[in-house]
Amino acid sequence: MTHHIIIGGGIIGASAAYHLAREGEQVTIIDRGDKGQATDAAAGIISPWLSNRRNESWYRLAKEGARFYHELIPELEQNQNTDTGYRRNGTIALTSEDHIVNEKMNLAIQKQPDAPEIGEVKYLSERDVQRQFPLVANGYQGVFVSGGARVNGRLLRDSLIHGAVANGAVRIHGHAEVTPRGDHRFSVKVGHMDLFAENVIVTAGAWVNSLFKGKKLKMNIRPQKGQLIHLRLKGMNSDNWPVILPPKDYYVIPFEDGRMVIGATREDHKLFDTAATAGGIHAILDEVFTFAPGFKGAEFLETRVGTRPFSMDSIPVFGQIPELPGLYTANGLGASGLTTGPFIGCELAKLSIGKDPLFSKDEYSVKSLFL
Q1: DSSP, res 333
Q2: What residues does each domain of the chain span?
Q3: Could you tell me if 366 and 218 are in contact, meaning their C-beta atoms sit under 8 angstroms apart?
Q4: Which residues form the FAD dependent oxidoreductase domain (predicted)?
Q5: Do 111 and 59 touch, CB atoms closer than 8 A?
Q6: What is the pLDDT tens value at each position of the chain, 371 positions in all?
Q7: Nearest residue to 307 (alpha-carbon basis) of 217, 244, 228, 220
Q8: Contact (Cβ atoms closer than 8 angstroms) between residue 209 and residue 17
Q9: In the Cβ-directed half-sphere of 27, how many Cα atoms lie within 13 Å?
Q10: Could you tell me the end-to-end alpha-carbon distance of the chain, in angstroms, rounded to an integer?
Q11: Considering the entire predicted model, what is its pTM?
């Protein structure tokens, strides 16, 4: 049995731990619980088929991430009694312009044969949109895909960790420092404990460069601050409402009991600032009120702030760190962490036990982090 130490208990690390533990491997998960962890703050939209991004490498990974949920969620729900935070209610891409709705329809239909999980694709008139999401203003139409889903990052992460622990994984809270040894093993120091393992998987996101001791491994990761606001619509049952992808920046994710998550801001050069700001809240509400004025009467619940890690070209990467066999990492998921993270964690688990990943090892190589 090989010992795998996973440093970073966000969505990637939780998924890697779960899949390794399910294989009967010895797994230790180390996380120091930094304030502002992306997974902890996040609510995700699983609907890459309607994205405005045109990068094919990103889309292939995001498409596979969306497909992977169809395997993962039934497995988690069958094997353990936890709420995964995942629900497939569909997604509406909202617009007030005819040519954009036509482009979105054509885009979704073109992608459907290669991504059957997209489900039904249909045009929604103004009346149709308001029937499915009553808060939207007049003048908006949309494209609906039934396969779109929402996910609560905290709940999904906790469900994966719960599954890993149920299969023998051990959790440790604390700061880890990794030192490569000369015997194809790694030393990981956590407080007064010294741990040793054949494989180490580093999934520490924006905090990754604080972990390595001795051999310096500086990864080119760009942290980005994101603020999300949580509102409540009293007396409304929003559990079955679809996710809204609006014309501009800020998405709307409905949850149960009238709770709505709206965001997220994209604030560069803020390092690890976790403060909720008046400017961030204003920017979100100012835009949302233009297409959904029904939110003006909502109760303000909270603001969550997370730090998302971006690679230099905004494409996620994962694999073995060059010249250090047994040391693996994944990073740079940016705003698509909950779409791609569970799948990437599973791919890292495969690599760590010598199984072939779905994608070529060079396609999303971590070498780009060290250029």
Answers
A1: B
A2: 3-40+154-220+313-370, 88-148+222-310
A3: no
A4: 5-351
A5: no
A6: 899 999 999 999 999 999 999 999 999 999 998 888 888 888 889 999 988 777 899 999 999 999 999 999 999 999 887 899 999 999 999 999 999 999 999 999 999 999 999 999 999 999 999 999 999 999 999 999 999 999 999 999 999 999 999 999 999 999 999 988 877 789 999 999 999 999 999 999 999 988 876 556 788 999 999 999 999 999 888 999 999 999 888 999 999 989 999 999 999 988 789 999 999 999 999 999 999 999 999 999 999 999 999 998 899 999 999 888 999 999 999 999 999 999 999 999 999 999 999 988 788 999 988 86
A7: 228
A8: no
A9: 32
A10: 35
A11: 0.95
d(CA 142, CA 129): 7
Contact 85, 160 (CB under 8 A): no
Calpha distance 159→359 (Å, rounded): 26
The residue whose two tokens read 């029937």 is 131
Which CATH class name applies to 3-40+154-220+313-370? alpha beta
**Residue 358 identity:** L
Tokens of 159: 């469900």
